[in-house]
Specification:
The structure is a homotetramer.
Chain A: E1 2-6, H1 11-20, E2 28-32, H2 41-44, E3 56-57, H3 59-65, E4 68-71, H4 79-88, E5 92-94, H5 105-112, H6 119-124, E6 126-127, H7 130-139, E7 147-149, H8 153-167, E8 182-188, H9 203-206, E9 211-212, H10 220-232, E10 238-244, E11 251-258, H11 278-294, E12 301-303, E13 321-327, E14 333-340, H12 344-358
Parallel strand pairs in A: 1-2, 1-4, 2-3, 4-5, 5-7, 6-7, 8-10, 12-13
Antiparallel strand pairs in A: 8-11, 9-10, 11-14, 13-14
Helix pairs in contact in A: 1-12, 7-12, 8-10
């Protein structure tokens, strides 16, 4: 099978190239790049020398030759390529946000500033978070008319952490009323900002420091809310704050989910603050078991055992989403920590997972990397 | 004035030595160390060479000679020294947790595992968060009977971020009922773990990674709750999660405060998620002004202007607490980000600030460092 | 084939476990650990969860069951295990320094402080730097009496950078007389220090800083000198200085080789310093071609093209040694930069490469990782 | 005294602003910036908020009002400002390379690509490395015609490490013949690259990695060679290789100086490699003492005692140059390690030191920062 990658020289594109080069079902790759058309991928990424050599062509050349097309372009410019693939009958897996909002053009336009050029494609596309929509992706198999929107990095870690609590009714009132929002406090490594240099990612300005950004205004907010609502089958209040941390890869999401009364374990007396009592430990174990059961058949979600806490270095260079389960000291709020490698489960690895599902391959194919702690 | 430092070779002790060596009211320093007694401070910290030279003596020698004693010992072993200072009439400023809980021995014992040896001292000691208790510290001046408990690093950043909202009634119901907890999601640099090597702070295991620790079970939880309750004059529900980030210095706290209805600005419709509207921006500005007014006379709190977000590299090597004010996208929750240098405002700088207040000096004396962004 | 790993919970051991778990010829692994005997590897390294599960046994149990034994113990304690393997006829690949000095017991004792317990084994063992001794490793195949000393991390990067210049007579007089030493200035990531916490590798003391250590006194000095002498067939003067850099993985070696007169390209006039002239550029290209030719059949050495400089992030997580070729501004000294991943080509990957050679497998088996730039 | 800073918003300019704001002789600062003219310095550097507030004016406005002018512009554009200051009789301290080569226009032009516009100024300017040219700077005092070229960052650390060996005749033959070059292998933190974002300093591409750059072709090469020649009073062969390390501040230089026969201590037998014998330790101590004596009156050079090795975290945020003295294992080569904070002793601190000398102030004024190890 020939894989085409449009936008192969950005970080997500290059990571796709690296991962797909070891994929058992991929014989060949055809790459495009606007910035480096005419050069070779290994001159842009010398780490590929002696292993991957491919000319950087036009997007048209990619679409003409490929059996499956991945688009790793910036937001807002991929629709014509999606259309071309659709018309030609080639599956199109889009790593940008362009197709993540289905037919909700208003939300897309509000956050990304552009209307849909081809609304009919958005009506047909599938949001490819396998743990939510595996069957919908599978349903596209063989149709020759597949557009898959690969999820955003933050929404992947946030949604996977919240899903079991939402699905199993742990959360206080869904849809939430006042005070029952899910708070998602997340931290991303710098590769999430892409390959283009800027002040925010200039080493002396972001190394050895931590801070939030785009508070209350990050584009991944509606995507997370939409995913939670899809799981709840009704609106869910979410609050999302991203932070930048001096790390190359990884997203850590700490998710606060107010528990319904029957799931709480502690005392409502806030005037006495004590270390977690046994009742809280037991309730945590119960919820952990519930999470583990929810994800028991998922190849890339690991619900961590008691005593192990999610951290980005435990999923580094892998397609795993690690989840650790905790309660706050008072037993009233579930605290879920999730860790992913933002370049893999948060981007290119998940795109390959979607390809595997779409083509009926082993979902793990090409994604068998074991995390390296450093 | 002669400053004595018990436990001078730990990180907080050594930082005290460094800062006090430039303090206009300190002529001399007398240092002690259990681990390095008999050596000189500059052999333990060669960065001090040619600038600071002092033998490492016993704690008794420090108490005998000093006009003010700082204790930078681990938790649980300082009470005898406090007693000795008290009996001698020398002010004792304690950087450990030993005196942070006043007469609430039950809470101290529950979290730190030890009963009080001298309850009478705890009844008299003052928790030295100047922005909360400046007058109580001042009241100790000249009594010759001063024990000041220097606040914990996390509680400093968390409390300063929450205080104005609590004091001004922005928060939904105080004391909170279900669902109205303040969530404090905080990240600390590694120096917070002290000088003793351990796996958690071993470079290959914590560099290039981020993760939470002691979720629902960190000792600073009751201290934060107590501070918030002191400001609210009634219990406040708080949830606190610390994270470790690959940073040398700094604590970033992101604080989620559910707003009372009259302080909310947005729409309660969680099915439509939009970028923040002008009403939210305006409300944010109003709350920012309120915060700025609350701290208008504080020398070390900076409420940041619109467009500037708290980050640890903006307070690096200084005694400032920076605060930035935000609302979530829906306008229902106040999001306050605070940044401090954990070694300075979070430990040794604040201890000096307390000394300055106690001795009627300019509160800024010895603490005039301007932050270096790198 | 069953692989046994003695000392599986140190960094090199765990990296072996991770890499071997994907090796096509390895069906099973038997692991030992003194520190964690009785536990499972995935509880020590939770990054392995759901992928690798194995009990930690005794070294004897490993030797009894394995078809090949890797020893990742600290220096000085492995000889009894080597003897046991030798007697049983099981190949023993030693990642420590114990067998690196062949029959030169005096040098080993001088630097490592211990005499040989079994000198007869050292007489038979082979130093497994494939680019130097591939044929000697191959000659052990099938003998059932194989002890292979896996090279040190620094010696690997240093030797591979110097070999072609030495072998092809580029260097001024071999053996050198005064002034013609090869200077090797190298920098290592922190994982080279192993898993045991210590002050030197405590995050706040080594992050955001760089400095040399053990100047003129590092144990890898005699190993490098011996390798260079083996290539030169006479003694070679080398000077070696290691540095610690705040990096997880990787060794960068910058190697200064004084050129013989006929290989120099510039002017001997040191009173006029100019940017490199065309003659120097041309000479650099000529030497680069010579290096490329020297390594043309090596699967894991990449001589980088003009314009690409060796850096540790270009070999990250791979078994490559990258080499870039430069001349100083005056054209009198060859400057070779080499980069390896210290955990892979500098330790566990090279050990697997040795196993592959010894067992007649594809030398690349299990080592096909493509470097990730971050 | 009013200090003017042209180019105040680059890193060196902003560091000048920060340091001068605490200088006892500076009452006021007048700042210029081409990029941010019309804004205020504290909006470009919010870390200055509440402490430093100044409008960003034109360079002409700075020159018109200042009693001393610092220029922190990029290379090649400052001569007109130097001329204006000279004509007005205001001392001009230039942090760029423009005046570092005195009347050697050919060398400047060869490396920086521009001829001199005002050769007469270069004939009068002084290269302000105090440890070399203090008296020449002092001689400008009161003339009203002072142009001081502040040294480059690498040349500062390299020159200070080599000077005593050169001056005291430790080095093998000066000027060197073949094989007796001084090798300077140096590593810089990322702030040395300035504030402008670029791929080389983009966090994901330089974090967690180390590599050399501009090998044999860095502009600081002729400056180092010129300084060494000035000390030797004849040409000296130097070889200089810069590296980039993932550090914010600091330059570490490891300097290899071939010793004259009478200064060597070991054996010339390169076939036997042993740990350093007592003779070598003694010779090291002797050379260390010689270095200490050479710098005994220097306020900002610290020759470290036995057992302490130069590292950038020991000079962090200070104006010190630390020097540690070592011999290679064979006793034939002196290895000197020097560490500076590239922003302070390597740029803005040294500029203030020059101002202090020129104006007859205490040379330490405004530069009394004690290094912080983190």
């Amino acid at each position: 099978m020939k894989a085409g990658i449009i936008g192969a020289t950005g970080y997500a594109g290059a990571e796709l190239v690296r991962l797909l080069s070891g994929h058992p079902a991929i014989d060949d790759m055809i790459l495009s790049s606007v910035s480096f058309e005419g050069e070779h991928i290994e001159s842009v990424y010398p780490n590929f020398l002696s292993r991957i050599s491919a000319p950087l062509l036009s997007a048209d050349a990619v679409i003409a030759a490929a059996d499956v097309v991945f688009s790793a372009l910036p937001h807002g410019i991929g629709e014509p390529f999606a259309k071309a693939c659709f018309d030609k009958g080639v599956p199109y897996i889009d790593l940008s946000a362009d197709f993540r909002f289905d037919d909700d053009e208003a939300t897309f336009k509000a956050w990304y500033g552009k209307p849909y050029a081809h609304p009919e494609l958005h009506a047909l596309s599938v949001y490819g978070l396998p743990e939510l929509n595996r069957k919908r992706v599978q349903a596209l198999a063989g149709t020759g008319k597949a557009i898959i929107a690969n999820p955003g990095c933050y929404p992947t870690g946030a949604s996977l952490g919240a899903f079991p609590a939402i699905a199993k009714g742990l959360m206080k009132e869904v849809p939430s009323r006042e005070g029952a929002a899910i708070v998602i406090d997340a931290a991303s490594g710098t590769s999430g900002g892409g390959r283009e240099p800027s002040r925010s990612f200039h080493y002396p300005e972001c190394a050895d420091s931590v801070g939030p950004y785009k508070v209350g205004a990050h584009r991944h907010t509606p995507e997370i809310a939409r995913n939670c609502a899809a799981m709840a089958k009704q609106p869910v209040a979410i609050i999302f704050t991203p932070h930048l941390v001096p790390v190359n890869r990884g997203i850590l999401s700490t998710i606060y989910i107010p528990l319904a009364a029957e799931w709480q374990a502690g005392s409502p007396d806030h005037s006495v603050i004590r270390p977690p009592a046994e009742a809280i430990t037991n309730q945590t174990a119960k919820i952990r078991a519930l999470y583990a059961d929810f994800y028991r058949d998922e190849p890339f979600v690991r619900v961590l055992p008691d005593g192990v806490t999610a951290a980005t270095n435990r999923v580094r260079q892998s397609n795993y989403c690690d989840i650790s389960i905790h309660l706050d000291h008072s037993g009233s709020t579930l605290i879920v920590a999730t860790a992913i490698d933002n370049m893999i489960k948060g981007a290119s690895g998940q795109a390959i997972q979607n390809m595997n599902i779409l083509f009926g391959l082993d979902e793990r194919a090409g994604l068998e990397m074991i995390p390296a702690i450093f």
